[in-house]
Specification:
single chain, 239 residues, alpha/beta, Rossmann fold, four-stranded parallel beta sheet, 10 helices, 6 strands
Length: 239
C-alpha cells in the first residue's frame, strides 16, 4: 500500500485531516497536524511597535501599549526609521528546533513550509508595500549556510528586492550577545547598494527572528537614510 506524504519537520506520514487554525495556510505546507499544534501563533494584545504579546511583559514596563525595549528605541532618535514590526509566531522551543533544522543543518525544505504563509500574509496585510527586502547574511555566513533563509521564504513574492541591502560586517551571532549589548550596538550593520531603487518607496524587511529589534532598526535606518519613504518589518517569530 502506498504511503502518504511525510512531514518535512518530523518525517512522519501525514494524515489527511487539516488543522482548522491553519486552514488559510494549508496549501503546500507539507507539515503534519502534530507539528503544527506545537507552534504558537501570536494573538491578543501586542506592543504596537514590535508586535510582542503584552501578556509576556510586566505591566510596569508597558507605556501606551509599547514595551520597554521599544521605548528605548524611540529614545535613539538616529534610529527612527522603523514604522513597526509584526511577527507570526512566538519563539518557543519547537520553533527553535525548526529554525535549527533550517538554518544550521542546511535543510531548505524545512523552511519552505512557510513560503505560502509569507506570500499570503504579505499580499493580504501589506498592500501598501512597493518592495520586500530579505535581511541579508554576511558573505561568510552565506558561504557557510549555502542560502539565505529569508530570501527563500520570498520565492513566491514577485516584488522582492534581494540585493539592495548589504550586510557590512561579519560578526558574532546576535544570539551570543547579551540583550543590552544588542540594544546598545553602535556599529552600522548595513548599507544600501542602490539608493535610486528605494527612493520614495515603502518597504517591508523580512527576517526570521525579532529579539531586541537591533537588526530591524539598523536595516530601517540604512534604508531611511537612502531615501525610503517608510520601512516596516515582518518576522517569522518574536522572542
Amino acid at each position: 500500500m502506498a504511503q502518504g506524504k511525510r512531514c518535512v519537520w518530523c518525517e512522519e506520514v501525514m494524515n489527511s485531516v487539516s488543522w482548522e487554525m491553519f486552514s488559510f495556510f494549508e496549501e503546500e505546507w507539507n507539515v503534519c497536524n502534530e507539528c503544527k499544534s506545537k507552534l504558537a501563533p501570536i494573538s491578543g494584545e501586542i506592543c504596537l511597535k514590535c508586535g510582542r504579546p503584552l501578556s509576556k511583559v510586566k505591566r510596569e514596563y508597558i507605556l501606551e501599549k509599547t514595551c520597554l525595549d521599544c521605548q528605548r528605541w524611540v529614545e535613539k532618535s538616529f534610529l527612527n526609521g522603523l514604522v513597526h514590526n509584526r511577527s507570526l509566531f512566538e519563539y518557543n522551543d519547537f520553533m527553535k528546533h525548526v529554525l535549527t533544522l533550517y538554518k544550521y543543518r542546511g535543510d531548505a525544505e524545512v523552511g519552505r513550509a512557510f513560503n505560502s504563509m509569507f506570500s499570503k500574509t504579505i499580499t493580504k496585510s501589506y498592500k501598501c508595500i512597493d518592495f520586500v527586502i530579505p535581511i541579508p547574511l554576511s558573505i561568510e555566513r552565506l558561504y557557510d549556510r549555502g542560502f539565505n533563509q529569508c530570501d527563500l521564504w520570498l520565492e513566491k513574492v514577485p516584488n522582492r528586492l534581494s540585493n539592495c541591502l548589504v550586510r557590512i560586517h561579519h560578526e558574532e551571532k546576535q544570539s551570543k550577545k547579551t540583550r543590552q549589548e544588542r540594544i546598545n550596538r553602535s556599529v552600522k550593520m548595513f548599507r544600501v547598494s542602490n539608493d535610486d531603487l528605494i527612493k520614495g518607496k515603502t518597504l517591508l524587511i523580512l527576517d526570521d527572528l525579532y529579539t531586541t529589534g537591533t537588526t530591524a532598526y539598523q536595516a530601517a535606518d540604512a534604508l531611511g537614510k537612502s531615501g525610503a519613504k517608510a520601512v516596516y518589518s515582518l518576522t517569522l517569530c518574536r522572542s
